[in-house]
């Protein structure tokens, strides 16, 4: 089974003109926590954390869920 999150959070944050310190203040966390979120290993970031991060940037995300056999048909 494949799970992917194709997003560069640091790049997204910078494109909004926001520093890690600013993002941390918006989220109510430390700058080091923002850094950890942005450099998290694939598959280790919780959706709730991602949601908080994106909310702080004023960005909306959508999650696409589809049957696994759809992926196999296109492989």
Automatic annotation (TrEMBL):
Name this protein carries in UniProt: Helix-turn-helix transcriptional regulator
Domain of life: Bacteria
Residue ranges of domain HTH cro/C1-type in the record: 9-64
Transmembrane domains' residue ranges: none
Gene3D superfamilies with a match to the protein in the record: lambda repressor-like DNA-binding domains (1.10.260.40)
SMART domains noted in UniProt: HTH_XRE
